[in-house]
Amino acid sequence: MKEKSLINQVLKRLMFERELKTAELARLIGMPQPTLHRIVEGTSTRPHAPSLIAIAGYFGLTLEQLRGEVPIPWLAPMDLEILQSGWQKVPIVEWAELIHYKLGVKKSLLQEDLLVFKPIVLSDVKFCGIPFALKMPDASMNPMFPIHTTLIFDDGRAPKDRDYALVYLKKDNRYVFRQLILDGQQMFIRPLSPDLKEVTLQVLEKTDKLCGILVQTKQDY
Length: 221
Hints:
The chain is of the alpha+beta class and 221 residues long. Helix content is 30%, strand content 23%. It contains 8 helices and 9 strands. It has helices at residues 3-18, 22-29, 33-41, 49-59, 63-66, 78-85, 106-111, 113-117, and strands at residues 88-91, 120-123, 131-135, 150-154, 164-169, 174-183, 186-190, 202-203, 209-218. The strands form 2 sheets. It has a 7-stranded antiparallel β-sheet with strand order 3-4-9-5-6-7-8, with no helix packed on it. Helix 2 crosses helix 3.
């Protein structure tokens, strides 16, 4: 992995542990917020040495620790191994937060604060868009997706017949996780639970929105 990416991920973990946002850390170390933001997001290809020294100094680290070359004793050693292995951290979003999808701020929401301040799940999937995860909230998709199953979505993947997706239903103003049924240009959704046999295929209207296609699940045992 490139050095800039490892600095980016180590710094996000440090900020998570200290409960710091980018603006607050920039103020504490006397750095312009845009400069720190580029380092946090990994878009600064070659962060200047004075910037890295200021960041490392605030956390009481050496530059080698900030770069991920030397373990940080108070961080779990496996974290750096995960970062170097190519696995991706996916933020677990609360269902109540999904309203942000309608406000057009999804990308900044998921790319910035959530990776720092939200629980994460690790995934080895190659994503087409921005990944996010949810916990299955009910029994509507039993037995395949029991309650509390971690559902990992890709917001950039094209839907296919029989895929599973997170859907925003405009008329009901709510989000549901359902199986997709494609019939020509028409799209339907349905639950899987045998307790919902009376629920017929529901037509997706033009105002409804596919928010992500399921790409992976994880369960706790």
